[in-house]
Amino acid sequence: MAPPLLSLKKLSLSFGGTALLHDVNFSVAPRDRIALVGRNGSGKSTLLKIAAGMVEFDGGEFFAQPGATIKYLSQEPDLSEFSSVLDFVQAGISAGDDPYRAPYLLEQLGLKGDENPSELSGGETRRAALARVLAPNPDVLLLDEPTNHLDLPAIEWLETELKSLKSALVIISHDRAFLGALTRKTLWLDRGQTRQLEQGFGEFETWRDKVLEEELVADHKLGRKIVAEEHWLRYGVTARRKRNVRRLDQLHQLRKTRAEHVHVKPDINISVNKGRQTGTLIIEAKNISKSFGDSSLGDSSLGEKLIVNDFSLKVIRGDRVAIVGANGTGKTTLVKLLTGELAPDEGEIKQGSSVQMALLDQTRDSLDPNTSLKDALTGGGRDTVLINGVEKHVIGYMKDFLFAPEQLNTPLRSLSGGERARVMLARALALPSNLLVLDEPTNDLDLETLDLLQETISNYPGTIILVSHDRDFIDRIATITLISEGAGLWTSYAGGYSDMVALRGKGVIAKKGDEKSGGEKKQSRENKEAREVASAAKKSKKTKKLSFNQLHALKTLPQKLKTLQSEIEDMQNQLADPKFYSRDPEKFAAISKSLTLKQNRVEEMENQWLELEILQEQLASD
């Protein structure tokens, strides 16, 4: 076995008398792929900085193999001393490194190299820092939240690039899909100590839950021992003072151990302020288009950027719609169009009856940094939050969102990015709503807060529109995924991100040759269907009621669907027989063909029934 490139043994570190790390053991071998995970504030970033030689530690051993190159990606790169991005990247390259790799990486990451570092956005700064640590092909790459501020194409490119490297990787990330694709070991930093799983992040959460369940059993035994010790101290022989003192010390240690076990994996039980019951239709967009003048040309008349082109969509009660695409394709603009914040240049957008919207945006501008946590949640001057007509004490509501009671009067400026995101989520869910709009909700979140957000959204009783670059999060939440095809074209796929990739054959990164024609064809077909439905609706509206045939179809379609679905299930059971094909290949082929036709018919009938339901609601409300 090759000696480790990097090794930390029995490491300890304290801040202000509080132990952050104690008895930490951690080693990196050639080509290791390690996920470094732990709760927010557990010391993950500090441990990575120690491994990079940037932070001194109190005790323990540190070893780095002589001659090994170790590169560290900070969450907050500093480019202030450099006149251009290329200068910054090349400063990280040694004499023997490939001089052409820096320009290549910058090009792949969408940078030219001549940009002024002081004018870069957060995403551009992160791309420049990635180019700098990747350029030397180091022996060890220490990456702290490498996907922060990156869009989906950049994340997918980075994932592919890291897979191709020979470097050992240690990664801190909230992106489950990213960690799952890249790692083969998992280092869990928990209560100042490390535990290692010899498998990648994909297996971590199951293993962690098992460990915590075992700790609950141990905690129960510990609790019984504490009760016994307290009883002995209260009723034991008081003359044995020295022994009492010793047992008192032991009791304090037992209590300390138990306290460390408390809230390791907090229960999530959030009350959501439900809005009024909506109709079936939440939002309908008909052939909408939207453009903006190209400010880079100095005159909007000289050029326009087409954000949405002839787009139609129906959002039905209970839908979870995810919107994905590269930065600059208009994801946030599309959300603003669908929610009525922006008006389309062409086409029509209509909201259903009784829609109440709550918004969680990526900027979090609505948070006053000087406001206390209590006032941010209650609106000021109160101790309670109103949820579904019932007053709930603010401390209880805070605990739902993983805040400690002692944070009650903490100003928001003192909270971490993940904690501020939790405040926004708590505020949004305290409002009566049946439509929740989330614009990049996973930005700056740790895995713990992501779990909270995902659990909350999964249990949300209304409809959701979501913009995100987190593939795993989309997979767990979305029932519909909209993707930008460029040139204002948007395509809808059933399911989450992985479902979209399976149907599309690729993710957000796409070949330019076949992308346009496919997107245009599908969009054209969807627009045609939308126009036909709209035409039928206009004809029915003239009579102010459904025709006899429409009423009959509305009544009989559910039973017809039930019968068809039963037939489909029988066919699927027949085809599942592994010996069926060899026994009767002709019958197998006939049933397969019939199954496809019946499945298509089910989809047609479901759409027909849904259109009639919506039309009936619209006529009743007019």
Automatic annotation (TrEMBL):
Region (Disordered): 512-531
ABC transporter domain: residues covered: 6-216, 283-531
SMART domains according to UniProt: AAA
InterPro entries xref list: AAA+_ATPase, ABC_tran_C, ABC_transporter-like_ATP-bd, ABC_transporter-like_CS, ABCF_ATPase, P-loop_NTPase, Val-tRNA_synth_C_sf
Molecular function (Gene Ontology), one example: ATP hydrolysis activity
Keywords: ATP-binding, Nucleotide-binding
Record protein name field: Bis-ABC ATPase Uup
